[in-house]
Amino acid sequence: MARPDESVVHGSKAQAHQPDAPRSAPDTPATPKDLPAVDRLLRQPDVAALIAEHGHTLVARESRALLDEARALALAGTLALSAVAPDALAGQLAQRVNARLAPRLCTVLNLTGTVIHTNLGRALLPEAALAHVQAMMAGPNNLEYDLGSGGRGDRDSIIEGLLCELTGAEAATVVNNNAAAVLLTLAALAHGREVIVSRGELVEIGGAFRMPDVMESAGAKLVEVGTTNRTHPHDYERAITERTALLMKVHTSNYAVQGFTSAVTEAELAPIAARHQLPLATDLGSGSLIDLTAYGLPAEPTPQQMLAAGCGVVTFSGDKLLGGPQAGLIVGSKELVGRIRKFPMKRALRMSKLPLAALEATLRLYLRPERLTQDVPTLRLLTRPAADLRALAEQLRPAVTQAVAPRFTVEVVDLLGQIGSGSLPVERLPSAGLAIAPTGGKKGAGRALDELAAALRALPRPVIGRIADDRLLLDLRGLEQPVQLTEQLSLLQAALA
Ligand SMILES: *Cc1c(COP(=O)(O)O)cnc(C)c1O
Questions:
Q1: Which residue's C-alpha comes closest to atom 13 of ligand 1?
Q2: Which of 205, 351, 418 best tests ligand 1's pocket when mutated (most atoms within 8 Å of CB)?
Q3: Which one of 178, 182, 316 would you pick to mutate in the ligand 1 pocket, going by the greatest count of ligand atoms within 8 A of its CB?
Q4: Does the pLDDT at position 25 exceed 70?
Q5: Is 122 inside a domain boundary?
C-alpha cells in the first residue's frame, strides 16, 4: 500500500532501499536523500496499520533504527533505490516489528538422543501440569492461604503431604532447583562447621556448580576423606570431630568411577552417623520416584531407598527423572527439614507459584503408578521401545531423503541414546533413527554436515540432531509427533537447494 506517500517518495526520487537486504544486487544506488523522514514513513497507510496494532512507541523506535541502518548503507553506496520504495520500507518495518516481538525462547525438536537434555530445557511437563499452571496463574489462588481457617497458609503445605506419602519421609520442603536445595541444606545444617564428603564424590554438575564451591558458599568447611577411587567407613569415622556438623553423600550422577573402586553406601554410613549423633544427608541429583528397572531401564537410587537406609535429608531435582518443573526437593526427618525450612536463606530460594503448581500436578500423577509411562512425558519417552523407533525411522526415510537429495543420502540406523542430565551416564538407551550422510564422500563432508545442521536449526521449529562419524544423526526417541518434522521438510529442501 503506502499510496499517499508513494508519490512523494518517488517524486523526491526517494525510491530507496531496504536496509535489511540491501547488499544484494543493487540496482541504481540510493543516497541518504532518497530516504523519507521518520514522520513521513510513519504516516504511510501500511505503517499506520502497524501502529494501530502495536502502538506508536515500538513502531517509531523500529522506524528510526531501520532508517539509520538504511542511511549507513546509502552512504556506503550499497543501498538500491528500489529498496527505499515506500512499500519496501513498510515491509521491512513490519518484519522488524514482528521479529522484535517474537520470543527468543522457542520450542525445538530434540533429536539428539538425550532425553533429559539440560541445554534443551530438560523434562517436558505432563499435560496435567501444563493445564494446572495455566489455570492457577490466570487468577488468584490459595498459595499461602488456609481455606480451612481463613488465615495465612504455607506454600509448602501444598506439596508436603504428597511428597511424604510418595517418599516415606516425615517432612518435605521445596526450593527453586536442586543446587539451591543442596546449598540451603548445607547452610542450614552446617554453617560454620565441617561437612565430611568422600573425595570420589566432589562433583561438578556443570554451570559452575561444584561441590567444594557450594560448601564454601554455604559457609561450611569441606572435609574430604578417602581417595578418588576408594573410600571406606573408617575414613569417615576418623574424620569426625566436635566440629563436624554433617556427613554428606553425593550421587556421582554425571560420571562413573570404574575399576578398583570402593564407596561407602548410605546404609553403611547411617549407623556411623547415628553413633556420633550426626545427621547424614545425600544429594541424589536425579532421584527417580519409581524403580526404573521395572521398565527395563538402569537402576537409579530413589529417595525412598535413601530414607529407608537412614538418611536424615535427601535432595533431588524436579526436572530430571521426576519429569516435572525445575525444582529442588528436600525430604527427610521432621527435625532436619524443620531447621532447613526455618533457615532465612529459604525465603530467598523459595519456589515460585508457577513451578509449584506444575510440581503439585506432576506429583499427583505418581498416585497412579500404572499410568506414569503414559502421563509423564519423560517416562513415556524413556520407555518407547526401540522397535517402534525403528519403524518410525523406516516410515520417515523416504520424505527425509527427498528433502535432502541429491546432496545427502539417508539411512535407517540403530542408535544408542542416553537418559541425560547426569542420570546414569554410562548406561545407553537402545534407540533408532536416521543417519544423513553427504553424497560427496569424505572430502568436504564436514562442511556439508555443518550446513545441514545449520539448515535444520534454522527451521521454524529448529531440529537438533548430533554429528558423529561423518553423518548427522536424528534419534527419533524425542519425536512423538512426526508431523512436526515432516511439515518442515519442504522448507529444509528449499534451504539446501
Ligand atoms: C543435577 C544435579 C544437581 C543440581 O540440580 P539442579 O536441579 O540442576 O539445580 C545437584 N546435584 C546432583 C548430584 C545433580 O545431578
A1: 285
A2: 205
A3: 178
A4: no
A5: no
CATH of the domain at 419: 3.90.1150.180
DSSP E strands, 366-428: 408-417
Apex 184 CA angle, 348 and 209, nearest 5 = 100
CA distance 132 to 116: 22
pLDDT at 273: 97
Model-level pTM? 0.89
- The answer to the question of residue 4 being in a domain is no
**Ligand 1 pocket residue status of 253, Cβ below 6 Å:** yes
Radius of gyration of the chain (CA): 29
Q: Whose CA is nearest to atom 12 of ligand 1?
A: 285
> Does residue 473's CB lie within 6 angstroms of at least one atom of ligand 1?
no
How far, in Å, is the centroid of ligand 1 from the Cα of 293?
A: 22
Report how far ligand 1's centroid is from the alpha carbon of 348 (Å): 18
Angle at which helix 45-54 crosses helix 56-75, to 10 degrees, equals: 140
Instruction: Please give the Cα distance from 162 to 170 (Å, whole number).
Output: 11
**Is the minimum distance from the CB of 178 to ligand 1 under 6 angstroms?**
yes
- Identify whether the C-beta of residue 496 lies closer than 8 Å to the C-beta of residue 407: yes
Residue that is written with C-alpha cell 539411512 in the block: 411
Residue 97: domain span: 13-101
Quote the distance between the C-alpha of residue 363 and its chain's center: 20
Tens of pLDDT along 242-280?
A: 999 999 999 886 666 777 778 889 999 999 999 999 999
- Overall average pLDDT of the 95-99 stretch: 96
205 lines ligand 1 (CB under 6 A): yes
Are 426 and 351 found together in one domain? no
